[in-house]
Amino acid sequence: SLLAPCRVPTVPVKNLTGSSPVNPALAGITGILMSAAGLPVCLTRPPKLVLHPPPVSKSEIQSIPGISHTCRKTTKKQAKKGKTPEEVLKKYLQKVRHPPDEDCTICMERLSAPSGYKGPHPAVKPDLVGKLVKCGHVFHLHCLVAMYNNGNKDGSLQCPTCKTIYGVKTGTQPPGKMEYHIIPHALPGHSDCKTIRIIYNIPPGVQGPEHPNPGKSFTARGFPRHCYLPDSEKGRKVLKLLLVAWDRRLIFAIGTSSTTGESDTVIWNEIHHKTEFGSNLTGHGYPDINYLDNVLAELAAQGITEESLAQEKD
């Protein structure tokens, strides 16, 4: 039979959902050309895209032990007011009296020369140099204040050289809702446990002062978005950290979609999620043995680690 196992090169007939310009007939043409060239051909059954689990009734949904509630809402959190950028940065810096003989990586001028930043002048002398206390990288104070003013102004600072975070990094995710619960189905590669389902819902709205185009409306495509984690010890740990990321408004942002090119729309923000339940055709599915470790590293890059759990109320 055509579908019997065989030892010759297989021609997978890829599952094409219309998002690709390649015609599904292409695989067939490849097979014809190979057989015309005298090469043996074995057709494989195309892998099937399984985005969602089998239907789940309300009575089958369980809350997650150790995690209170099954839903989180975020509203617009105002950035901390009252402190000037200079006061914020002072906490993270030591003054450097004798600057090293190297460039400031923000303005690319020598640290021994005044800052080359030419924007609105912060209330700092252009020749002052500061060293970040945790990572030791050195910059013009003037440049750091300008960088802070161009960011989210939330009381945190990220070293532009090594990405070390000072304070608590927050993002600009628009208001929305995150639901999370257990469903009684297993993910590929995690047959020993049930599945945590996360449902994100963000409605379209108007951009705030922290967004790329304040006052302009933004779109929100593809919501509600369903994501999946194994209900294992490590999967629950990832969920707890994702809840911190959600509260800190770091999971989504407003920007330009890398898939559609649409601007002023809600996009994922550097913390990868699995949106494909029962297959891995898009690369956003299971099995993927490195996924939980990778997402823990992405969360840590946003300043979210196990220490964060101790700081935040559940």
UniProtKB/TrEMBL annotation:
Domain RING-type, chain residue ranges per copy: 104-163
Subcellular location: Cytoplasm
Pathway assigned in UniProt: Protein modification; protein ubiquitination
This enzyme's EC code(s): 2.3.2.27
SMART domains reported in the protein's UniProt record: RING (SM00184)
Gene3D superfamilies documented for this protein: 3.30.390.130, Zinc/RING finger domain, C3HC4 (zinc finger)
Catalytic activity: S-ubiquitinyl-[E2 ubiquitin-conjugating enzyme]-L-cysteine + [acceptor protein]-L-lysine = [E2 ubiquitin-conjugating enzyme]-L-cysteine + N(6)-ubiquitinyl-[acceptor protein]-L-lysine
Listed InterPro entries: Deltex_C (IPR039396), Deltex_C_sf (IPR039399), Deltex_fam (IPR039398), Znf-RING_euk (IPR027370), Znf_RING (IPR001841), Znf_RING/FYVE/PHD (IPR013083)
Catalytic EC class: transferase
Cellular component GO terms held in the UniProt record: cytoplasm
Main subcellular location of this protein, as a coarse class: cytoplasm
SUPFAM superfamilies according to UniProt: RING/U-box
Domain of life of the organism encoding this protein: Eukaryota
Any one GO molecular-function label of the UniProt entry: ubiquitin protein ligase activity
GO-annotated biological processes: Notch signaling pathway; protein ubiquitination
Keywords from the named record: Cytoplasm, Metal-binding, Notch signaling pathway, Repeat, Transferase, Zinc, Zinc-finger
Protein family (similarity comment): Belongs to the Deltex family.
Protein's name in the database: E3 ubiquitin-protein ligase
Source organism of the structure: Buceros rhinoceros silvestris
